């Protein structure tokens, strides 16, 4: 096979094929962009508070311990569906209080248990963060995770 | 070393190796926290250790790629580097950006997306440095001979820089954020970085085996063709569960299965050229790293990637230690080993001596490779157990983690051996030069 292929033919196949696959990838990404904005995520629900909550999430680099929809550090629990896990879909007030209380209780100082640092978040920041979790929980993730434990 | 300006590579390799050592140290610290959760908890929390570990890897590999480029470009282009001064300046800028980011992390100053934690000023400095590097090397290429190797290397580096600009786009919509975040992370390591890796591999094979350039360069085009044809739409394997349309499941599964092909082709390529080649190059250690890189990349990136890439498998394994296992061996085989191969090949020439300290260099190869494989096996077992307990049985995350402690202890042990191997490697390439050739090879040297 390799004998009958010349170097310039190999080069042309590389450039032509790569361009084709790049255009296919870019096109599907553009469609996915549209789909994510209009179909799979809550467009109206993406409030300023949710955006501020994402900023709180980033400011403290939560992703370097936790995972969010399966991406992150795998050192601490999945939080993409933490709203569901706290029963937020049935009782939003209790879930909000529960998540906020958990964050404020850190570090737990249980010997031999992984420690979450204390982050000194204001009430507003805590509410933003919970709004962000609630919004993230509403993304249509094609049925992932397989079990609510995350 | 035919061209005086190839010496520019030396400080790049020195800085890269120093950051490599730091990366291993932060890796060991983080692995220790898995075993002893209270370890350094007040001083350096886990998330800081982890971002330091991953960022150092990316920064030293990039500096390593730059060093490799400066070393091979004059030989390939048959002309001196456009401006050694620009090279030193851009190295200084990059080192300040990388080291500055690392120091700022220790004070909790960082951005918040995984692997893109560098503060904005650091990102801007990295961009400036990279553009200076591209200018300097492209000018050299334009002035000299264009070969498939230096053209593809530059194409890979330019594309890496272009996709890097997605680092500056951070939408509030988390799903969109993830969609474009992968345009850097995946398109780099499973796309354009493979162009860099393949061209470095081709360069080393020409030098070490003496096989005809015509044959090597044809293989090179085939390999990078396979890499981009499979790798671009292979990004789909990251789009299964993040809010993207369902069509990514068949597309991602199909094309990311094909992502094994370029790595398989690289192993075939490396060993075929090795057997075919008639040149008995005295740098046996460089040959070992070269063949090792192709082999471990095939297993780490190819086999371990395929293991959890089909969407009905990934549904259960996504975000478990299986991913960590794959990440460690893939980066080690494809990129760490390739840079170490070029360093091992280049250092005797940069120091203007015959190949030296080859026995201890090869010791570091076997120690490091064996312990990285062992680390990967322990994380794979941890990931399989985790997948079953957490994703199938539905047991709570923290309870499952307690069941994995044995694997984490063994991972820490493997990490410590990696550290020893890294010290041995640094000693082999930068330490005093002793024996020139492995025993039994002296006849060849004297001939």
Automatic annotation (TrEMBL), chain A:
Residues 48-137 form the Cytochrome c domain. InterPro entries: Cyt_c-like_dom, Cyt_c-like_dom_sf. GO terms for molecular function: electron transfer activity; heme binding; metal ion binding. It comes from the Bacteria. Keywords: Heme, Iron, Metal-binding. Gene3D superfamilies: Cytochrome c-like domain. It holds the Pfam family Cytochrom_C. This is Cytochrome c. The lineage of its organism: Bacteria, Pseudomonadati, Pseudomonadota, Gammaproteobacteria, Cellvibrionales.
């Amino acid at each position: 096979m390799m004998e009958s292929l010349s170097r310039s033919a190999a080069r042309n196949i590389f450039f032509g094929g790569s361009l084709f696959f790049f255009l296919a990838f870019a096109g599907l990404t553009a469609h996915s962009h549209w789909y994510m904005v209009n179909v799979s995520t809550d467009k109206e629900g993406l409030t300023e508070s949710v955006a501020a909550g994402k900023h709180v999430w980033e400011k403290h680099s939560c992703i370097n311990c936790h995972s969010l929809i399966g991406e992150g550090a795998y050192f601490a629990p999945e939080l993409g569906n933490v709203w569901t896990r706290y029963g937020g879909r049935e009782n939003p007030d209790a879930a909000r209080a529960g998540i906020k209380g958990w964050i404020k209780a850190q570090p737990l100082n249980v010997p031999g248990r992984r420690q979450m640092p204390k982050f000194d978040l204001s009430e507003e920041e805590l509410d933003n963060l919970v709004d962000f979790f609630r919004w993230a929980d509403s993304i249509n993730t094609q049925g992932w995770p397989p079990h609510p434990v995350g | 070393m035919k061209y005086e300006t190839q010496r520019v590579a030396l400080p790049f390799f020195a800085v890269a190796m120093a950051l490599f050592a730091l990366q291993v140290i932060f890796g060991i610290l983080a692995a220790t926290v898995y075993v002893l959760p209270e370890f350094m908890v007040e001083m350096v929390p886990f998330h800081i250790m982890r971002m330091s570990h991953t960022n150092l890897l990316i920064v030293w590999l990039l500096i390593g790629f730059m060093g490799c480029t400066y070393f091979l470009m004059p030989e390939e282009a048959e002309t001196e580097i456009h401006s050694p001064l620009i090279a030193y300046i851009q190295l200084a800028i990059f080192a300040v950006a990388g080291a500055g980011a690392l120091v700022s992390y220790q004070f909790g100053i960082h951005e918040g997306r995984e692997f893109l934690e560098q503060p904005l000023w650091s990102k801007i400095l990295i961009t400036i440095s990279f553009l200076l590097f591209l200018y300097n090397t492209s000018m050299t290429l334009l002035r000299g001979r264009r070969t498939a190797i230096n053209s593809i290397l530059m194409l890979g580096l330019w594309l890496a820089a272009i996709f890097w600009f997605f680092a500056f786009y951070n939408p509030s919509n988390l799903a969109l954020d993830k969609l474009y975040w992968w345009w850097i992370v995946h398109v780099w390591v499973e796309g354009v970085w493979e162009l860099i890796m393949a061209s470095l591999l081709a360069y080393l094979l020409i030098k070490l085996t003496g096989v005809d350039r015509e044959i090597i360069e044809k293989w090179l085009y085939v390999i990078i063709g396979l890499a981009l044809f499979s790798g671009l739409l292979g990004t789909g394997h990251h789009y299964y569960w993040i809010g993207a349309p369902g069509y990514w499941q068949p597309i991602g599964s199909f094309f990311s299965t094909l992502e094994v092909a370029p790595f398989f082709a690289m192993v075939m390529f490396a060993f075929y050229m090795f057997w075919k080649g008639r040149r008995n190059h005295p740098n046996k250690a460089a040959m070992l790293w070269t063949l090792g890189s192709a082999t471990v990349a095939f297993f780490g990136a190819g086999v371990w990637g395929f293991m959890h890439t089909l969407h009905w498998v990934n549904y259960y394994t996504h975000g478990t230690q299986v991913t960590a296992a794959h990440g460690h061996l893939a980066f080690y085989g494809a990129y760490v080993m390739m840079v170490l191969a070029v360093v091992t090949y280049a250092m005797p020439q940069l120091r203007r001596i015959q190949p030296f300290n080859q026995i201890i260099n090869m010791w570091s190869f076997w120690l490091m490779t064996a312990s990285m494989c062992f680390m990967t096996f322990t994380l794979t077992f941890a990931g399989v157990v985790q997948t079953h307990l957490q994703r199938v049985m539905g047991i709570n995350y923290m309870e499952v983690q307690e069941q994995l402690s044995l694997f984490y202890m063994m991972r820490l042990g493997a990490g410590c051996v990696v550290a020893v191997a890294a010290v041995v490697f640094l000693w082999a390439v930068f330490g005093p030069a002793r024996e020139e050739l492995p025993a039994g090879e002296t006849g060849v040297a004297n001939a």
